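Most newcomers find our protein records easier to grasp once they have seen one. A record pairs a protein's sequence with a compact description of its fold. An example says more than a description, so a record of this kind follows:
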Amino acid sequence: PRTIMKTLSKYILALLSAFLVVPAFAANDAGDDSARYYRNNAEEYNGKMVDVDVAFVTRINRKDRIDEIVFFVAHTVDDDNSMRGGPIVVAVLEGDAKSFMRKFGTAVDRSNGKVDTKRLRGTFHLLPKGRVYIDESGEAHALIEAHRKEHGDAAIPATGDAPAAGPGPKKKKRF
């Protein structure tokens, strides 16, 4: 009877932990160097410089373009929570597109079992309908705003406009 009570109390304690502790971790905000964090706090960061940890980028090829700008999706990593940080659109001046792709790569790079990331710094912008992007150069936003006044938002991609991202960084198990 005593062993049964010990075992039963261990199971009850484990169940309580699962219901009380794990949801507390799940409710935590995304790490502050991830796309998810900035999308969740878009109004607070609109027009401000931000940094994200980028695993790789994907170029967005669209028919309706904005002259002098190339859009990418940066696939970010949330190092704080050891998981994917989500995608975010990045506006890059056309003349800088090739060097941008070389710097951030187009596939996940792993070393020692860890996803290698590079720091992307730019100005975060919130557009109508909740679209967000990072202006990597600091000069793309003026071109985008001029285009929006003349043509509307059609040529400004949403994060979902990128091609499939491929394998991306794997989510690590916490326990």
